[in-house]
Design brief:
Layout lengths: L2 E2 L8 E2 L16 H10 L2 H23 L37 H36 L2 H16 L2 H12 L3 H28 L2 H8 L4 H9 L4 H24 L11 H7 L9 H28 L7
Antiparallel strand pairs: 1-2
Helix pairs in contact: 1-11, 2-3, 2-11, 3-4, 3-6, 3-9, 4-6, 5-6, 6-9, 7-8, 9-10, 9-11, 10-11
Length: about 325
Amino acid sequence: MTEIASRSGDAPLPDPLPEGGIDPVLARPGGLREFWYYFRENRGAVFGFYAFLVFAFVAAFAPLIAPYDPTEQFRDHILQPPFWQDGGSWSFPLGTDPLGRDMLSRLLNGARYSFFVGIVVVTIAASGGILVGLIAGFAPKWVDTIIMRIMDIILAFPSLLLALVLVAILGPSLTNAMIAIAIVLQPHYVRLTRASVLGERSKDYVTSARVAGAGLRRLMFVTVLPNCLAPIIVQAALSFSTAILDAAALGFLGMGAQPPTPEWGTMLAEAREFILRAWWVVTFPGLAILITVLAINLMGDGLRDALDPKLKRS
């Protein structure tokens, strides 16, 4: 039996090749195939991945899929129940809200806002957090200490409360909510990147690059950063779901997206007083948030299993 390693630092993988046959584990040689092999071992992660693909598809093509405009009002069909209840109709499969707007159309278009929030928040938080984390990892001790104490102060506040305060200062809107959530999530990337950099700096390949004359920027962004990306990718997936959840919470509190925007948290806020009369106006937005956040978290767990060599089984 021969042993092969998919890449430097990974546990060796057995490679028994039967005569005239093919490696029974085609996914193991490395790269994307190896990643998919470990990822698909977590069935919950596979479910989360496919659910996320559906979510992304709906977000991209919501205007084409939705039967009506999300702000269009049908005054003759106010609080109409879903089609399977008495009084329901296939014209409005999931019923209508207190203003006669189609629930299905609003849910589908709400996916666009949630996906947009996740993309923008993760991009801002990760970009700034990675940059500050790299600086902290390579900076002198006193600079590192100042940066990390600032991050500790931010982390000392409850994330949603801090986001709420920031939005109150900036003004209620979806844009300000995204900025506030990105600021709140940034310390996680700073700490994670710094820890990864400190773990990589002492390795031989970094020493070799430094001896070969690599400058500081090359060491930071070309030599070290690519080897720190695995935990950052996992954090980005988990932050995506956190951003959606926090945006919905701020919308529910009236500090995020403002009516008539079909954002899931705002839809919940508008339907609070009708919870006993029309269960569907709060149930469907809540389920949309639950399923989306759960799917992304499950996918994040699978990414962690697939990208962390310590969790891989030989």
